[in-house]
Write a structure and sequence with these properties.
Rossmann fold, 4 domains, 14 strands, 41% helix, elongated
């Protein structure tokens, strides 16, 4: 369900700080405030309660719940936003105590932002699926409005079937339908991916709002809309980038990561991150002007593992160097991070060095090979010019012999796509 909000909506942010996690919690709440601002929700107050563990029934303790009741009345609060994902029972119990307030958690907030920012059919379908899976265990009698969404689905209830049972059945049917639609969309994009597999594919990944879209614009003149908002980019944008005539890449800009990403979104956006899975190189973009950039690096790596993305060749791209407060801080950051390229995508600083690094990665494991292709195989004879740099070629009666400079990854793609097996490498080994 997408919550329709008034133009100005007052909220209180609530978080639990567990032992030894004070700083982590404070940073998480700051991020929660940014998420609220993205939806134009006004944050009136923030409450962080230190506890040994999260309260099983009300998330916060009973005393804090009484304090919240008073604040809601005094400050005319419409929404309480909790920094963790609430269990269905926690949400229900808090709602009983704070009757005139909407109770949101971090997951529902992120899902609402995704709903607002989804543009393409694939993104909308993925977000709808995530929202339905989030809603299913949280259904109560108030969800009877779902009946309006049933469309062509047969919703006739059996004997004694309650409204809530019908709503649950409706959502399960919707989930099944959305999963089927995502499979169709994935099949439609297979042809496009097959064409791109002939090239060196680079995927931009990073924390939300790290400057990925700005970098994409600089490298490819893509003209992607850039705003200082979390999760502005949801749909994967793919553009060709010609570094020089022998180094052409396909560059993809993917959805940003964030701490505590709802597991429903992890599941539904798996198809979007197939671009990352099939990439030859990852550009990990990190905003070094953010005080929490080390935590962001950990989150990126953790999320890639969560999405089961295999280990890949990558370049750390440390962005927004122009926004670091002073030279001393920048010197300390560079001393700590000696494994990447420092840039400002907005100011076009360090871009040439980044392109040079990409070229070096492309040429890694590049070898001279002699490839013989049957003259009857017209597609392979045509495609080899896209896969390799041709150094020499000789046409025989039955085959054409190409002497090429070709990267191992590109040869694997080429031989698999066009069933090429007769190859002599630079050591004259037969494969």
């Amino acid at each position: 369900m997408h919550i329709i909000r008034p133009k100005i909506e007052k909220s209180i942010l609530v978080a639990i700080s567990l032992p030894g996690e004070k700083e982590v919690t404070e940073n998480s709440v700051k991020e929660l405030a940014l998420l609220a601002n993205t939806l134009e929700i006004e944050v009136v107050d923030t409450i962080i309660q230190s506890r040994m563990k999260i309260h099983n029934v009300h998330y916060v303790g009973q005393g804090m719940l009484e304090k919240l009741k008073q604040l809601v009345e005094e400050l005319e609060i419409q929404t309480i936003i909790c920094d963790d994902e609430l269990t269905p029972s926690q949400q229900k119990n808090i709602q009983k105590e704070l009757k005139n307030c909407k109770i949101l958690d971090r997951s529902s907030l992120i899902l609402d932002i995704f709903k607002d920012h989804a543009k393409t059919k694939e993104a909308k379908t993925q977000v709808d699926l995530a929202r339905m899976e989030y809603m299913l265990p949280r259904l109560t009698r108030k969800w009877t409005h779902l009946e309006r969404q049933k469309g062509g689905i047969d919703m006739r209830g059996g004997p004694g079937e309650t409204q809530i049972e019908m709503d649950r059945r409706l959502i399960r049917n919707q989930i099944k339908k959305l999963k089927s639609e995502l499979k169709k969309i994935a099949l439609q994009s297979k042809t496009q991916k097959k064409h791109r597999s002939q090239h060196f594919n680079v995927a931009i990944v990073g924390y939300t709002n790290a400057g990925k879209s700005t970098l994409m614009n600089v490298l490819t003149f893509a003209k992607i809309a850039v705003e200082d908002k979390l999760f502005k980019t949801l749909d994967t944008t793919i553009r060709q980038c010609e570094i020089d005539k022998s180094h052409v890449i396909f560059l993809s800009d993917t959805v940003g990561f964030i701490k505590k990403l709802p597991h429903q979104l992890v599941a539904s956006f798996r198809s979007t991150l197939k671009e990352v899975e099939s990439a030859d190189l990852l550009l990990k973009v990190i905003d070094v002007s953010d005080p929490n950039f080390l935590q962001h690096i950990k989150t990126i790596d953790d999320e890639l593992k969560e999405f089961k993305i295999p280990e890949k060749n990558f370049i750390n791209v440390y962005n927004k160097v122009d926004m670091v407060s002073n030279k001393l801080n920048m010197k300390m950051i560079k001393k700590r991070l000696s494994d990447g390229i420092f840039i400002s995508a907005k100011r076009d600083l360090g871009i040439e060095k980044l392109l040079l690094e990409i070229k070096e990665k492309m040429d890694l494991n590049s070898h001279q090979r002699t490839i013989r292709i049957s003259n009857k195989n017209g597609k392979a004879n045509s495609a080899i010019y896209q896969f390799a740099k041709i150094l020499d070629q000789k046409v025989e009666d039955e085959f054409t012999e190409y002497k090429v400079n070709m990267r191992d990854t590109m040869f694997e793609k080429f031989s698999k796509t066009y069933n090429i097996s007769v190859v002599i490498n630079n050591n004259l080994d037969q494969r």
